[in-house]
Automatic annotation (TrEMBL):
The keyword Transmembrane is annotated on this UniProt entry: yes
Keywords for this protein: Glycoprotein, Ion channel, Ion transport, Ligand-gated ion channel, Membrane, Receptor, Signal, Transmembrane, Transmembrane helix, Transport
Coiled-coil zones: none
Self-association and partners: May form heteromers.
UniProt lineage: Eukaryota, Viridiplantae, Streptophyta, Embryophyta, Tracheophyta
Boundaries of every Ionotropic glutamate receptor C-terminal domain copy: 441-791
TM region(s), chain numbering: 571-590, 631-649, 816-837
Keyword hit for Transmembrane: yes
Main location: membrane
Protein name per UniProt: Glutamate receptor
Places the protein is found: Membrane
Bilayer topology: Multi-pass membrane protein
Amino acid sequence: MMPIRGEDNNTSAAKVDVGIILDLETDVGKVMHISILLALADHHDNASHSAIRIVPHLKDSKKDDVEAASAAIYLLKDVQVQAIFGPQMSTQTDFVIDLGRRVRVPIISPATSPLLAVKENPYFIRGALPSSCQTKAIAAIVKNYGWRQVVVICEDSSYGAGIVPYLTDALLEISTLVSYRSVISPSANDDQILKELYKLNTMQTRVFIVHLQPFLGSRLFLKAKEAGMMSDGYAWIITDVLAGLLGSVDSSVIESSMQGVLGIKPYIPRTNELINFTKRWRRRFHQEYPDMDKVDLNVFGLWAYDGITVLTKALEKVGGTAISKFKKAAIRKNLTDLDALVTSELGSLLTDFMQNTTLKTGLCGDFRIVDGELQPSPYQIVNIIGKGERSIGFWTQKDGISCKLKMNGKMAANKQLGNITWPGESTIAPRGWEIPPNRKKLRVGVPVKGGLQEFIKVERDSKTKAVTATGFSADVFKKVMLSLPYDVPYEFFEFQIPDSPTSPDYDNLVYKVTSKDYDAVVGDVTILASRSKYVDFTLPFTESGISAVVPVRDDERRNAWIFLKPLKRELWMTTGAFFVFIGFVVWVLEHRVNKEFRGPKRKQFGMIFWFSFSTLVFAHRETVTSNLTRFVLIVWVFVVLVLTSSYTASLTSMLTVQQLQPTITDLNDLIKNGEYVGYQKGSFVKDVLKRMKFDSSKLRSYSTLEEYNDALSRGSKNGGVGAIIDELPYLRNFLNKYCRKYIMVGQTYKTAGFGFVFPKGSPLVPDVSRAVLKVMEGEFMNNLIQKYFGNETDCPQKDGMAITSDSLTLDSFKGLFLIAGVSAGSALLVFFLIFLYQNREILTTDNSIRQKLSAIAKVFGEEKEKPNSKSEMSGKGNESQTTTLFASSAASPETLPYLPSQSPERTTSPPNEGFSTPEPGTPVQELITEANEEAWYI
């Protein structure tokens, strides 16, 4: 640091050289020059006893990138400046910041191109807001007015191209598309500009975002006025450079060609310091440039003042710590200017300080640099009126749009902009699109087909060739277009859908919108995911879903076999099998101990069926003696009770209630039975049926409701179909006409319904969708349905609920059969275990297995002996005692006076068994009964 003698006689002050590179041929360059001189003067006045003195070295880049590079090399090599302010153009700055990184000298540049990355250039300090900061503010304005498409007009340079990707992304976040990007060369003549504007005027979009510098921007608006594009219905938004430098634009251009334009620029608080500085700046400007016309102070001049102020503070802090200015370069022969550059030791310290610093008292407000990037302040939204501009609102990253800004910098609660005068002196916000002048009406395609004209019917006048569309879909569209808040003229164009199998279908009609043959499609067009990839649909105006219609069976009450209908076939078979099984189990348990289950084989075989089936009506009279049998019968009788009750209820319902029963209740039955299935010609339903595994050879297409009726009446076996599968609106219409013959069955497969078709990203879609909702909520829709489809309440059962069979299925009784089977099986198992145990001596013999099984079977076939040896003796004693008693009674009646006289038949009759209840008798009878009961196997 070389000490010099300053004007303030401070002999200890050290000189610090600072380079300044500006385009002094531009107004912006001159404005920043004066601001920099005032900033340095203020520093010297406020720090008269400072240890350093800043010496500026100004170089003019003359709007040339090479001149700017040459100036930077001179300042770094010959002057050895410690910092450089500038250049102001992005293309010039791109090379200079590379030099700064090489020699470690900070470059403070007001270049706004976002292509200049601060993170990749550590010695680059951006002293202005990049143009990408304003993109979300512009998107907020677009969103505020619901514009769905915009056109971007930018300069053909790095300045113009830098904002495009950021602006596109910001608009995509609000679902707005950049429909076209118009690039205008800075050297374009008036004819070229006018030609481009005429091209833009043939497009549908009427919202234009202009990112041009003042000179080119003023020429653009002059030609836009000439092209008739500054009238009612157009919206123009200019970016911060043009809006911030509006003072450099000729006032005649503003008054004649820019009225109603919206602009966005950084908000500068109007403070006393700013007012005083502006006065000083004007005096100094006229001193330096006395021949210049009136030029106003702008935001770039304020940024330059604050940027130099931050630099002076950094030099004050770190300037005295440096030992030498630059490190000497190694001595080499044939050095170029770039090789001769030396590295600064002070530059790194300056950069570290300036990369994160805040100037609270800046002329721009809060001048804050974070990681080398100037942080955005609130943006002000202005409306150009008369010779100047009028503030209509503000935008911040945190709070969005508001009409006013509070003193503390926060947004007011009102989230709207102020009153705006739009081009053409209109006070109504443009809708953002118009039908181009060369195409005065919306071209609407409508399908022409042979049948189902209740939905769309197309007629062509033989003389005028005008196309007229009527029907449910066309009438809804007409009502919707009338409900829009603006007039949209349209005309219909017919699209033929012939009956041949290879004819164009609805997909081809939809793709006509993609190819721009039509601007819209109206008809019974279903909203599908595959179609929505290429076009946009409005909200549906009909119900959705796919279902099936099948013929109704004849009255089942006249069917001779209706008594079989209450139970499904599998339930009948299972019930019959269990009857046989239970009869077999009872026979096994009773065969050895019950005479009624013995006898010839034919009798025993018949008993198995008789006994179990007699329980169906509780008509069994055979007595059972085994407790195991009683257990099985208790469970089985309960099962029979439930079955008979359910059968009775179902049969009663069939006989007493007349129902429209379908011939088929499940679509899977159509596939299993190989039935033919019908669908509407040209419909996507064919693809749905293929996905449902229907055989393509079993599909038949039809065009009219009459063909549907004929095909269903004939059936699959007679050249017709077993079912018609189509969308609900068509089936509702069909059932309304033939409700007594057919019925809707099975599951409803969801679809999105009918919608109107528009090109991808069409601005009409949201407005038309809102109008569809409005129309559907009114009485118009009900009247329209009544007009084309009649009174829906006239046809019973037409709502087509999912019809299922009334027959009872096996699934409803699985639990009962499981309990009965387990009970009977358990009893059978217990019986055989006891039987094998009692005959274990047979199993312990040395005979073969066949002989053992034969012996076991022989024993099983024999009747079980009632008494054993002891009970036989006891039986004889009881018999003798009983005989003696009867003999005594006969010889001397007085011996037992309490015994009533009995006939011989009464005395010798056997006691009652099983479930039978004996009548009251004498003690002798009770004794005989007890003796006999003890002899039976229990």
